[in-house]
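As described in the Methods, two query proteins were run sequentially through the folding procedure within a single session, without resetting any intermediate state between them. The first query and its resulting structure tokens are shown here.
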Amino acid sequence: MATPADKLWRNARLATMTGDGLGAIDHGAVAAIGDTISYVGPDAEAPDATEIVDCEGRWITPGLIDCHTHLVYAGNRAKEFEARLDGATYEEIARAGGGILSTVTATRAASEDDLIASALPRLDQLIGEGATTVEIKSGYGLTLDDELKMLRAARRLGEVRNVRVRTTLLAAHAVPPEYRGDPDSYVDLVCDTIIPAALGLADAVDAFCEGIGFPPEQTDRVLTAAVAQGLPVKLHAEQLSNLHGAALAARHGALSADHLEHLDASGIAAMAASGTVATLLPGAFYFTREERRPPVQALRDEGVPIAIATDCNPGTSPMASILLAMNMGATFFRLTVAECLRGVTVNAARALGIEGGTLQPGRPADLAIWDISDPAELVYRIAANPLHARVYAGI
């Protein structure tokens, strides 16, 4: 006799995300004891439960995971968008003092409460589309106090909403104006002061390895310092050029390398060997009107796990829709339905170094229940939200 559960969702179709595809179960059920899944399988074999929810044939997936966002920031960059429409490139805007640094100015001027208030609508949109876990980066403060302020705001978002927040320190996002003539000294500050101070607030460390960010040598210093402090790392890599950042990240055992439009074969091989996830960000690809796509088939061929995320940020992906990110991943990058769904569940969890993203006993009881007849609808539709109910930690 199975152990009675606290809650049972029955009469459902399940996309468990186990195995290599969707792991579908018709006539299925999910049970939870407390905040943990205790049973997944045929409805007819489900345990008794204190509370039973009849899903009336709806589909259940794991709660969705957005594994790459810059959700906390102040201001917006609509005028830069207008400038790009007039022909300016992202790099030209950044080198003229716009881009990331314009958001830094606004974010430094904002209080912690201001940052929370401005981020909540974006977070609520993700929650409203079934997200139960959201990664949030710093990187718009670029001082010790402002980076910690952003991380505290991100942590507090997970307290005022029923959502799991994973925080990432991205102090190596751009060289701040006050260090423009001496970027090595800023990297010293990041490595020697900001990373140690962020222990307990940051779950991981990231950097922007790019011509308008940090070259590989400085990036390597940041990742080395993070690993020395016991923090996992990830990397913005190969978005605008190929600086071999993905291979560098892989040498440090990175959880993920993200963007990857200019990724080459050696980088793919390094990621495959290290188990580093390829996180694709189709919103940024779309918004900046890039033409070079990530090498998806080569990633498949080498067995590199693929995640998808919104990259929600004010400059290059002002999008807080994980469902739209899936549609873009399929449309622009030719990902399959199963790849898209795995990209926002099991592979996204792997990109954050957490358990989750599957319907399995022992995993968090995070569910999304959908008014759909087939999982392909979650990828196919544009500007539609078929979420029926969201369950976070069994509730």
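Immediately afterward, the second query was submitted; its sequence and tokens are:
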Amino acid sequence: MISVRRRGVARLAAAAMVSGLVAASAIAVAGPAMADQGNQGIGGATATLGDLKVFDKVVVKTDGHERQVSAGLFEMDVKSGGSIQTYCIDFHTSAIQGQEYDEVGWDQSSLHNNADAGKIRWILQHSYPQVNDLGELGRKAGATGLTPKTAAAATQAAIWHFSDKVDAMPKNGEAAKLTEYLEKNATNLAEPKASLSLSPSSVAGKAGERLGPITVDTSADTAAVSLAPGAPAGVQIVDADGKAITAVSKGENKIYFGVPAGTADGSAELNVQANTVVPIGRAFVAKKVKSQTLILAGTSTSTVTAKASATWAKQGALPSVTAMKNCAKGGVDITAGNEGDEDWTFEVKGETHTIAAGKTETFTVPVAEDEAYKFTITGPNGFEKVIEGVLDCQTATPGPTPSETTPAPSTSPSTSPSPSAGGSTTGGDTTGGNTPGTNTGGGDLAETGGSSATPMIAGVAVALVVVGGGAIFFLRKKKAAGQ
């Protein structure tokens, strides 16, 4: 198994290589669509990172140096409807505006081995914006004159204390009192449950059977279920009694694929959708690239989704595959089942696995920290499961020492980002501070942990295109080696 390393210079080099490959491929030709792993069983909210909306200055001390960064709340648009607000829990990593994020459990984020993760949730529950009576919040903290901006900055500084062990304090003296109050009084709270999840996300069997069960867990009272387009005629979503259903509730949350006898070998997919409030404290990680990990602080009613699939055949192997990141083991857990009457053999990342008839096995595919991965598992009757994402399980460590204070963001906190801005890096920082050593001028957008100085990125991007092109040439030369 590949060990997970802390992110010093090695992290920077890895990020540069990935960035170069992305830049080169974007110029050469558009790549295939990414598999929507966030909706495969894990489900929940998918949201697009917007701008840093409510923020103020925070002074950060690292290696004997001080710098000012903008710290506060991001606004994110939920893909299927609704909006949320988030704080940063990965100070030294850049936040890339316009990227899609998935709601995940703490075990799939940088909080997986953080003994203080529950204290971060306490801070979220006991500070702004969950507590929007700033007069009362100020009285508890012994502070006066708190505003949404200074309260958000104070809250973010306290969160960084527990997520990144960063020495951060608001520039505003009254806000600093709130930070001290939050750090002193924080206690560990339990992890919040997912807004929506399916288990398992893949089932198999024979026609004439109910394939499942699939357990639906959601914070909503009810969730709608439907077959995805293209399902064979006669296939339905049914309950344990075989009755066709269009919704599930908390009390009756097990569903099945009902496949009539005589149905030709094939497959189908179902969608589950719920309108609910995503629980405060859920982590959000980027789907396609390395971008700052965030944690939910403010929420509205949002539409959350998940999906599951089924395959059936008269004879032979009948595969099913469910995948989930495993930060503790530094990889992706793959649960492979075979409901057929023959063994099923497949390959993942150069290793061969055989699942005996009627058996299920779980194994971990090692993935390096910050590595973008993509595995395609195939089986009989056209079975194909694409598993991809980015393993982001550790908070970043500082780079070189900064030479001067981070420039102030020029984006107005009251102005929403243009939809066309997707994919741009949030100049300077975006919820905390620039990665040390990248504080060149500009400050195009708001800050929040991590570097993204525009002039540096512009220059580095050109060089990385060349690096990416060279890497692609090298990979082609090494194709025979299976890389």
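Helices lie at 9-28, 117-126, 134-141, 148-163, 173-185, 454-477. We note this only descriptively and draw no conclusion about the first query from it.
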